[in-house]
Specification:
Number of helices: 20
Shape: elongated
Catalytic activity: a tRNA precursor + 2 CTP + ATP = a tRNA with a 3' CCA end + 3 diphosphate; a tRNA with a 3' CCA end + 2 CTP + ATP = a tRNA with a 3' CCACCA end + 3 diphosphate
CATH architecture of the domain at 1-118: 2-Layer Sandwich
Pfam families: PolyA_pol, PolyA_pol_RNAbd
Radius of gyration: 26 Å
Distance between the termini: 80 Å
Keywords: ATP-binding, Hydrolase, Magnesium, Metal-binding, Nucleotide-binding, Nucleotidyltransferase, RNA repair, RNA-binding, Transferase, tRNA processing
Structural class: alpha+beta
Oligomer: single chain
Largest sheet: 7 strands, mixed
CATH topology of the domain at 1-118: Beta Polymerase, domain 2
Helix content: 40-55%
Strand order of the largest sheet: 3-4-5-2-1-8-9
CATH class of the domain at 1-118: Alpha Beta
Organism: Frischella japonica
CATH superfamily of the domain at 1-118: Beta Polymerase, domain 2
Family: Belongs to the tRNA nucleotidyltransferase/poly(A) polymerase family. Bacterial CCA-adding enzyme type 2 subfamily.
Number of strands: 13
Strand content: 5-15%
């Protein structure tokens, strides 16, 4: 029985990237052998074991054979005669098919180290096409390692396009698509994830609301490219996937506003939310960004009452982080609109100052003066408006 460190941990060691999780493969053993050593078995499709002390995952070397449609249509073989190379061959990319033995020696049967050095994402074998989930995984790896100069090999992109054309991508569950998307939103360049999906013709199938943006223009700019650039600039400002998702969604309803038919059926944001069962916090910030970024852009034209009304609508008093999340998207969208990475965005300074001034209005003083019930909120709103009027004067 031999154990090998495999997959992402080995790849990231070679790339000098932080190693978060370590996965191990056991060759020459049966499930009972690991159980006898105190490992705990988890997983249904094939046995994965948790080390009794480190809780790291250990899996028996296995092969897989396509037995049906979709990413779940596989039969697994994990008998003790499966070799390390057979196990590595079933993986998606060469850079993820490198193992390291207990002497820290690399086993690299598919030239993954060369592809790491050349910064290429390349599939291992034609069996890549058997699992449509790999289209999303490659897109996510492209986003994750874009800053290191990685690109997708042309033959791998061609295979991804073939998977889409054959309809396999449509077998993915919405839950799995969202899981991969959420992971992509946490990478350094999430816009690359969606760009890759567009290039392999999967975007209009998985995210038709976003794909449709490429058929529209706003301020003489393609709305799809503007959205991707807004997401890029937002990601340079914050690692928060919720804010990044809001940037992705900020232009979606612009299509509705340009349409001649005022139909609820055209509200594509709701369609996106409902299909993927988007978590509430993601929807909340995306709605705020979608509805109010134009107001923020024109903050200098708003009256004091309108500014306070805006702050009320984004629920900034109970959730002050909403203001920064909105401003990140607005600032990024302005940079994308003017194609200016060093743009000074005055609305950000104005709205932040307005918030500080209105926040300083004391509710305790209002209560002490005898206001009660709804009168407290009415007076508080009035004094916040007066504070901003005084500032302007």
């Amino acid at each position: 029985m031999k154990k090998y460190l495999v997959g992402g941990a080995v790849r990231d060691l070679i790339l000098n990237q932080p190693v978060i999780d370590q996965d191990w493969v056991i060759v020459g053993a049966k499930a009972q052998d690991l159980l006898n050593l105190g490992f705990n078995q988890v997983g249904k499709d094939f046995p994965v074991f948790l080390h009794p002390e480190t809780q790291e995952e250990y899996a028996l070397a296995r092969t897989e054979r396509k037995s049906g449609k979709g990413y779940k249509g596989f039969v697994f073989d994990f008998n003790e005669n499966i070799t390390l190379e057979q196990d590595l061959e079933r993986r998606d990319l060469t850079i993820n098919a490198i193992a390291m033995d207990e002497n820290n020696q690399f086993i690299d049967p598919f030239n993954g180290i060369a592809d790491i050095n050349q910064r290429v994402l390349r599939h291992i074998s034609p069996a890549f096409a058997e699992d449509p989930l790999r289209v999303l995984r490659v897109a996510r790896f492209a986003a994750r390692f874009h800053h290191l100069g990685f690109t997708i090999a042309p033959e791998t992109m061609q295979l991804m396009q073939s998977i889409v054309e054959q309809g396999e991508i449509e077998t993915l569950t919405v839950e799995r698509v969202w899981l991969e998307t959420e992971k992509a939103l946490k990478t350094k360049n999430p816009q690359i994830f969606f760009s890759v999906l567009k290039k392999c013709h999967a975007l209009h199938i998985l995210f038709p609301e976003i794909a449709r943006l490429f058929t529209q223009s706003l301020h003489q700019q393609n709305l799809g490219q503007l959205t991707f650039n807004t997401l890029k600039y937002t990601s340079q400002m914050t690692n928060d996937p919720v804010t990044r998702f809001a940037a992705l969604c900020c232009h979606i309803n612009a299509i509705i506003q340009q349409a001649d038919i005022p139909s609820r059926a055209l509200t594509t944001l709701d369609q996106l939310y409902n299909r993927f069962k988007i978590p509430t916090i993601y929807k909340k910030i995306a709605n705020i960004a979608n509805r109010y970024y134009r107001l923020v852009d024109n903050i200098e034209l708003l009256s004091a009452a309108e500014v306070v009304d805006l702050l009320n609508h984004i629920d900034v008093w109970r959730n002050p982080q909403h203001l920064q999340q909105l401003l990140f998207v607005c600032y990024a969208n302005a940079k994308a609109t003017y194609n200016d990475d060093k743009l000074i965005y005055q609305p950000k300074n104005i709205l932040e100052k307005a918030y500080q001034i209105t926040k300083a209005v004391s509710i305790q003083a209002i209560i002490a003066q005898g206001f009660v019930g709804k009168g407290i909120q009415i007076e508080l709103n009035h004094r916040r408006i007066q504070a901003l009027i005084s500032l302007k004067n």
